[in-house]
Amino acid sequence: MLEIAIQQLQVSEQEILDNFIDNLKSPVTKHSYQKHIEYYLTFCQMTKLSELLAITEPDRQIRRYIKSLQERNLSTRSINTMLYAIFHFYIYNDVILNTRKIISYVGQPTLKQEDRPYTHDEIKKILDVSDLRMKVIIGLMYSAGLRIGAIADLKLRHLQKIEMCYKVTVYEGSKEMYYSFCTPECASFIQNYLEYRSTNGEQLTENSYLIRNQFDINDLEQIRNKSKGIQTGTLKVMLNTLLRKAGLRTVDRITPHKRKEVAMAHGMRKLFCTQLVKAKLQTEYRWFLEGHKMKGNDESYVKIEDDINEMFQQYKLAINNLTVSDEYRLKEQVKSLLVNKSRIDELEENLKKLESEYKKLKK
Questions:
Q1: Are the CB atoms for 205 and 187 separated by under 8 Å?
Q2: Which of 52, 142, 200, 267 has minimal Cβ neighbours within 10 Å of its Cβ?
Q3: pLDDT above 60: residue 346
Q4: Start-end ranges of CATH 1.10.443.10 in the chain?
Q5: What angle do CA 23, 29, 35 make, to 5 degrees?
Q6: Which helix (H) or strand (E) holds 32?
Q7: Three-state DSSP class for residue 180
Q8: Where does the pLDDT of residue 6 fall: very low under 50, low under 70, confident under 90, or very high at 90 and above?
């Protein structure tokens, strides 16, 4: 066993990481698994992946990890998610584990703890203390339903203007790719943020990151030549700081891992999904806008994602529900009233023509 461990230590860190990550297709899964392995490394008081492979009794060490997670009152579902990442790491680096036995230590499933979506008032509080960049991030989560992990990889080519909104291509080039839209309110955040960057000297291209690192407006070299994207972990730290600034989160030193009433990032996606239901979108379109697959074998036969116009018409039903600012909501209501008035005027005009033709026929 020791000889095997020594041989594994000789394998490069990059090769170990590649074995672990390369066969994962989804960017979200890659990020999630890497995060969980980092947590496990911290528990083991290690810094290198090769050190994990050198553990002589990995099964026993994982069981200790399970016990530590249970002491933090994590749900069985959360613990299992963490374990799948660890299993994947070991299996794809040729270490055999007794996974069935390990999982048995997790115990019976715990009752599901319900959390709620953010309210419109809470989103408004967050936006009120946000800078231009954070308004874009928040807007994409609550009005387009994007997971925070999807935002980091967005580039300008993934946005396409449609009327006063944007169509957003999510997870481009992956099996999980789908389309969503953002509201005129969110579109204004994006336009203001991009205008701020270009006004200060950044040369934007289709391959520019939508969300870039902060820059000093007096440093043109930094603005033009040192633009780079932001990691998902950094976005989460930024969001957590913003929630505390808005008064929606406090520092809990006694039970820091206790589940919150509203999930930090996912609560915004929950708001998005809830409002799509309240706006009575057709179920299949709602699924697709949420990035979900169709049920059964419909996925193989029904290609609603090809009809972008119809998808957008469906999304428009929810724009008012997904708008936070009273100003934008009133604009949408006025716009809707004008459309309805135009239709009524058209119907009245058609009715007059029919009455005129009917009178002619009577003569």
A1: no
A2: 200
A3: yes
A4: 120-316
A5: 110
A6: helix 27-43
A7: strand
A8: very low
